[in-house]
Structure prediction request, 443 residues.
Amino acid sequence: MKKIGIIGAGHVGLVTGACFAKLENSVICVDNDKEKIKKLKNGVVPFYEPGLQDIVRKQLKNKRLFFSDSIDDLVESSEIIFICVGTPSSADGRADLSYVEQASVQIARALNKIKKFSSKKNNYKLIVEKSTVPVLTGEWVKRTIEVIAPTGIDFDVAANPEFLREGSAIKDFFEPDRIVVGVENERTKKIFNEIYKPIDAPIIFTDVKSAEIIKHASNSFLAMKISYINAISQICEKVGADVEMIAEGMGADSRIGRSFLKAGIGYGGSCFPKDVKAFISIAAELGYDFDLLKDVEKINTQQKNIVIKKAREFLWNLKDKEIGVLGLAFKPETDDIRESPSLEIIKLFLNEGCIVKCYDPKAMENTKKFLPGLYYGGDAYDVARGSHLLILATEWEEFKKLNFDRIMKLMRMPYIIDGRNFLDLKKLKKSGFICCGIGKKME
Ligand code: UGA
Prediction:
């Protein structure tokens, strides 16, 4: 059993903390949002992640998981401190590392207090970056603590980037493909071997800088795969080929692989858009012009404009047309709408003078805060009623099970754009729809 502290109770921090508690460690999670901490103390998780609330409640009851707003308490009681604070995009695309700096300063100040008042001899701390950060952040964290904390404080800095996906975060924690850990010495390596012992996955030990780059390089590579297949989807549309068959054919080559070759309206979320930008930015700072990734971004933006183009091909004039949008979250099984392609598309339709109606099983409340003027339907049928065009923007399983004969009767015009190549277009055609996906023939 280890004593673990988590700074930042967001998606990464909370999942990491709850899962380490489930592995029988004693975990304290700190966040400066007092409201959030109050909710969490009562077992209420402020976002939707399948299975997370159960684990949080159980571990609170087992007294292995604690929530606090005091970093001093966390530093005092933890041997391993994970920094899981946000690293959002700045206006110029760089990662804004001010929260990481703040956490480092707070850790250093708390270490000062411990040094002053504690009689304990062994006050070793391992400080771990878990948030996605640009290369060289670890050096800054170390320097910040060294400058503020007095000599004699025994600590190491390590990087342990997180690869969990929203919607399957718990599974990704317990069954990862690999665990990446950047360390400076054997002592740190030993601690990571202990805390990850219950997890059956290879641990790849590197230096800290390499671990930092592995995270940015992995997310950017996956974003590149998506933009690559989306570029292919455009060629498909020009000649009437089928991008899904192409992804199948390419993906069967084990060197390429089938995953992340789903063409559609592009990638979104709190990670890929931000990380691609941050990687381009740190590369530029280091003197490398990452043109390849700039094109990845460009293709991703184009995918949204394509939906408007397709809508125009169906509806002629867009002004005053009623557009029903199914799905708001950036992907299914989450209520997260950050950088969601669906919201980008909605904004484009609103700019064209359309009336937008929408429905999502989980992400409506979050969307209402940003787009209060939309019509929020009670279900997909409600949104379809009177619509000229229906757009599937997030591939929630429940949308596959819809009664499209009923939807056909409710709609004003029979058009569907499947932005995720998720629906059975041939079946829809039989119900009387005129429909298209992305990179496929119109049905
Ligand atoms: C991503 C990575 O997959 C995780 O490994 C990583 O830990 C995480 O970012 C992070 O950095 O924290 P996540 O953003 O939760 O995870 O979601 P993904 O499942 O990767 O999907 C990202 C976006 O790509 C979604 O909008 C999804 O719809 C889109 N996508 C995905 C496609 O358009 N096509 C695909 O084939 C796959």
DSSP finds 18 helices and 14 strands in the chain. The pocket of uridine-5'-diphosphate-glucuronic acid is lined by residues 132, 162-166, 219, 222, 226, 260-262, 264, 267-269, 271-272, 330-331 (CB under 6 Å). The CA atoms of residues 234 and 435 lie 17 Å apart.
